[in-house]
């Protein structure tokens, strides 16, 4: 079963929309297999956003993601990586459709409420950066 890494960013946590976001993925039919509220250390933020190292906004990105608690999650389900990206909407909230998370709750590209893995490779990398295998649950015996 496919897994993805999703994270409510500090702006989403501060605005008390963790429940709203979790609820959208639950209602869609995905299963939450891991979650933690945490403050990201700088070295983890730099690793997580390593592909943006050369971008002019890299410093701002790391400063923001480490500025307050985030809610890190692993979700499982059919085609969850692409579907979660659709449900999140465009990276820049000004381009995101109403009905998507960023379209409904985001205002700026920096404070865009949620992060989600963009491919199977990044999902595996990001899940392993944030979670140990024993922190993830297994529902298969119930089904
Ligand atoms: P995310 O999906 O977490 O992955 C990289 C992040 O970089 C992206 O969401 C945006 O929040 C952020 N980002 C992209 N472009 C800019 C920009 N021009 N200025 C600040 N942050 C940006």
TrEMBL record:
Its EC number is 2.7.4.6. Major role in the synthesis of nucleoside triphosphates other than ATP. The ATP gamma phosphate is transferred to the NDP beta phosphate via a ping-pong mechanism, using a phosphorylated active-site intermediate. Belongs to the NDK family. This is Nucleoside diphosphate kinase. It comes from the Bacteria. It comes from Pallidibacillus pasinlerensis. ATP binds at residues 9, 57, 85, 91, 102, 112. Keywords: ATP-binding, Cytoplasm, Kinase, Magnesium, Metal-binding, Nucleotide metabolism, Nucleotide-binding, Phosphoprotein, Transferase. It catalyses: a 2'-deoxyribonucleoside 5'-diphosphate + ATP = a 2'-deoxyribonucleoside 5'-triphosphate + ADP; a ribonucleoside 5'-diphosphate + ATP = a ribonucleoside 5'-triphosphate + ADP. The lineage of its organism: Bacteria, Bacillati, Bacillota, Bacilli, Bacillales.
């Amino acid at each position: 079963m496919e897994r993805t890494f999703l994270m409510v960013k500090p702006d989403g946590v501060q605005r008390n929309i963790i429940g709203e976001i979790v609820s959208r993925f639950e209602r869609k039919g995905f299963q939450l297999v891991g979650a933690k509220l945490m403050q990201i250390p700088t070295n983890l933020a730099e690793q997580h956003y390593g592909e943006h190292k050369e971008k002019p906004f890299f410093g701002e990105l790391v400063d923001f993601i480490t500025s307050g608690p985030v809610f890190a999650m692993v979700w499982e389900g059919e085609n969850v990586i692409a579907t979660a990206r659709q449900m999140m909407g465009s990276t820049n909230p000004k381009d995101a459709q109403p009905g998507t998370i960023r379209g409904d709750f985001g205002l700026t590209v920096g404070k865009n409420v949620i992060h989600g893995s963009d491919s199977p490779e990044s999902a595996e990398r990001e899940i392993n950066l944030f979670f140990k295998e024993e922190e993830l649950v297994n529902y298969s015996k119930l089904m």
